[in-house]
């Protein structure tokens, strides 16, 4: 894999290690989503640590959003979404990939933010070993499946509390993105509520994924019925 990432920040980004507290996540989901851009998700410790600066996210508005997994009420899988903000919600899609969301809003709100893309800013060798087919560094955490893969996230991490002092998955303050650098558009690949402008990304960042409208596809055995996130 090529090591270049034109337009990526690496050492120039402020990777503040200050962990974000519960109040950050308990705000309205679109506020949280936009404020996540430039923040850094960290998974693991020591040689097993990978950190990703978030560059693209999508908001899902709970039971008011037909594209959200929580739209029809709590299930064993989505129960974490109905709890307090600041928890991780992961799900398996198309029988192939894990995707990661951060629960947002007050307890019971059931909103979440899908982590769509980012830049690996620490643990590049481990991240590359987890995605050996990535053509360049900018592709390592592009797309929700790629992002979850480089962070090593799967179903065992669903429900993890990012706010606990001893959590191996946490969100650091990083360098928040000014409003003037944030772009907004429709969510990728959703079959319902497709016109809602709930996808947010950092303008001109090379790690942001390409927009794709929803198209029907054959489901693998055991795959969830909807591609939508949070």
Q: How would you characterize this protein structure?
A:
This protein has one domain: Methylpurine-DNA glycosylase (MPG) (3-methyladenine DNA Glycosylase, Chain A, Roll). It is of the alpha+beta class and 230 residues long. It has four helices and eight strands. Strands 1, 2, 3, 4, 5, 6, 7 and 8 form an eight-stranded antiparallel sheet that branches.
Provide keyphrases for this structure:
230 residues; alpha+beta; 3-methyladenine DNA Glycosylase, Chain A; eight-stranded antiparallel beta sheet; globular
Count of discrete domains:
1
The major sheet is characterized as:
8 strands, antiparallel
Q: Separation of termini?
A: 32 Å
Discrete helix count:
4
Principal-axes geometry comes out as globular
Low-pLDDT runs of 5+ residues are 10-14, 219-227
Oligomer: single chain
Mean pLDDT across every amino acid position: 87
CATH superfamily label: Methylpurine-DNA glycosylase (MPG)
**Total count of strands:** 8
Strand share of the residues? 15-25%
Provide a short characterization of the protein structure.
This protein has helices spanning 22-25, 29-36, 124-130, 144-151; strands spanning 40-43, 50-60, 88-93, 97-104, 111-122, 169-172, 182-185, 199-202. The protein is α+β, with helices and mostly antiparallel strands and 230 residues long.
List the helices and strands and how they pair.
Layout: H1 22-25, H2 29-36, E1 40-43, E2 50-60, E3 88-93, E4 97-104, E5 111-122, H3 124-130, H4 144-151, E6 169-172, E7 182-185, E8 199-202
Antiparallel strand pairs: 1-2, 1-6, 2-5, 2-8, 3-4, 4-5, 7-8
């Amino acid at each position: 894999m090529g090591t270049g990432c034109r337009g990526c920040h690496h050492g120039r980004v402020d990777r503040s290690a200050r962990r974000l507290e519960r109040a950050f996540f308990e705000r309205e989901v679109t506020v949280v989503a936009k404020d996540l851009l430039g923040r850094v998700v960290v998974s693991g410790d020591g040689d097993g640590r990978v950190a990703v600066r978030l560059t693209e996210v999508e908001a899902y508005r709970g039971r008011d959003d037909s594209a959200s997994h929580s739209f029809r009420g709590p299930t064993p899988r989505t129960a974490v979404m109905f709890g307090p903000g600041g928890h991780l919600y992961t799900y398996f899609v198309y029988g192939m990939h894990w995707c990661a969301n951060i629960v947002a809003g007050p307890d019971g709100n059931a909103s979440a933010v899908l982590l769509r893309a980012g830049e690996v800013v620490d643990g590049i060798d481990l991240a590359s070993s987890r995605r050996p087919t990535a053509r360049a560094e900018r592709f390592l955490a592009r797309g929700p499946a790629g992002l979850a893969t480089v962070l090593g996230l799967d179903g065992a991490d669903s429900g993890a509390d990012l706010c606990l002092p001893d959590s191996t998955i946490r969100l650091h303050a990083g360098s928040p993105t000014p409003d003037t650098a944030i772009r907004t558009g429709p969510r990728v690949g959703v079959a319902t509520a497709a016109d809602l402008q709930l996808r947010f990304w950092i303008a001109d960042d090379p790690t942001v994924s390409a927009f794709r409208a929803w198209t029907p596809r054959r489901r693998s055995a055991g795959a969830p019925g909807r591609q939508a996130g949070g």
